């Protein structure tokens, strides 16, 4: 699947993944009102509205970017109807040719880690039929339980030719409370990065590994260092746009070939219609506003990369 992601980036010229992170504040009024008329003020209405909102976004951007990244917590808050919307979103995005990165941040050990890996990336045998649950192409994982938590994902990825993005240095302000701590002169995130590179060597695509890393755009100096530590790992870069990251911050996350990183924007794209810059599109033009935000982001990154 890493080969498909790289091919998609080359085809679109957009090393961009759109974070499909719906909230009630982001869903346009006309979509929410329609769902409430049909289902009443309920979790079912929320699930229906999320699905319609996401479908419109996917239809608008599917030829502009190679991938989307639904964050499962944004769906879980609405219970089963939310998870139904998550499932429909994943499947529809794949139908439209997009790579799907399940932002699930799972981290456990043993049989539990295996179950998470199977649920999001693998399959189960039920009677004489092979069944797949959410079936994303990649999943984000938390490495802080060690190899016992990562190896089950790697095993499933090897079988399915899918991938993971391991949290190395996250974009949030308090990430340094633990990730920046030094042991024998080396930061914890650097230790994790070295392990990511080792895991990646065991699971290679054509040019890049199926084992990638998450390094936030808000720490460009870390991106420069981690690019050298993990030369064959794709870096998923959160923190662009709403969290303050700009195109100029991203240069060192990429290799000299212009590949090696994919930058995430969530609210900055899916909620673009609420931004003064794109306000002329209005609520009903939310998907068109998202298209313009993607094009502006693509130009910003391209300009930075030269």
Largest sheet: 8 strands, parallel, barrel
Low-confidence stretches: none
> Would you count the extended β strands for me?
12
The count of domains is 1
Q: Within the largest sheet, what's the order of strands?
A: 1-2-3-6-7-10-11-12
Percentage of residues assigned to helices? 40-55%
Give the full name of the CATH homologous superfamily: Aldolase class I
CATH topology: TIM Barrel
Global Rg: 19 Å
Give the mean pLDDT: 94
Which labels suit this protein?
two-stranded antiparallel sheet; TIM Barrel; 12 strands; 306 residues; alpha/beta; eight-stranded parallel beta barrel
Concise structural overview:
It is built from twelve helices and twelve strands. With 306 residues, it is of the alpha/beta class. The protein has one domain (2-264): Alpha-Beta Barrel (TIM Barrel), CATH 3.20.20.
């Amino acid at each position: 699947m890493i080969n498909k992601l790289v091919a998609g980036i080359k085809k679109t010229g957009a090393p961009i993944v759109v974070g499909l992170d719906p909230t009630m504040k982001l869903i346009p009024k006309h979509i929410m009102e329609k769902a409430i008329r049909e289902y009443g003020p309920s979790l079912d209405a929320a699930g229906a509205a999320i699905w319609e909102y996401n479908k419109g976004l996917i239809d608008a951007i599917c030829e502009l970017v190679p991938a989307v990244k639904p964050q499962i917590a944004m769906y879980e808050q609405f219970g089963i109807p939310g998870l139904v919307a998550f499932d429909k979103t994943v499947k529809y995005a794949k139908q439209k040719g997009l790579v799907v990165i399940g932002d699930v941040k799972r981290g456990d050990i043993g049989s539990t880690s295996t179950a998470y890996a199977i649920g999001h990336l693998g399959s189960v045998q039920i009677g004489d039929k092979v069944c797949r649950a959410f079936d994303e192409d990649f999943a984000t994982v938390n490495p802080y339980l060690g190899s016992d938590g990562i190896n089950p994902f790697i095993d499933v990825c090897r079988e399915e030719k899918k991938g993971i993005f391991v949290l190395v240095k996250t974009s949030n302000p308090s990430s340094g409370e633990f990730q920046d701590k030094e042991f024998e002169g080396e930061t914890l995130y650097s230790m994790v990065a070295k392990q990511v590179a080792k895991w990646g060597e065991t699971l290679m695509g054509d040019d890049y590994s199926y084992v990638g890393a998450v390094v936030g755009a808000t720490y460009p100096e870390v991106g420069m260092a981690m690019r050298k530590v993990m030369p064959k790992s794709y870096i998923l870069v959160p923190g662009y746009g709403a969290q303050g990251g700009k195109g100029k911050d991203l240069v060192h996350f990429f290799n000299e070939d212009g590949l090696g990183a994919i930058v995430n924007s969530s609210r900055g794209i899916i909620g673009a219609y609420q931004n003064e810059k794109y306000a002329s599109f209005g609520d009903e033009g939310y998907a068109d506003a998202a298209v313009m935000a993607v094009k502006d982001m693509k130009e910003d990154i391209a300009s930075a990369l030269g």
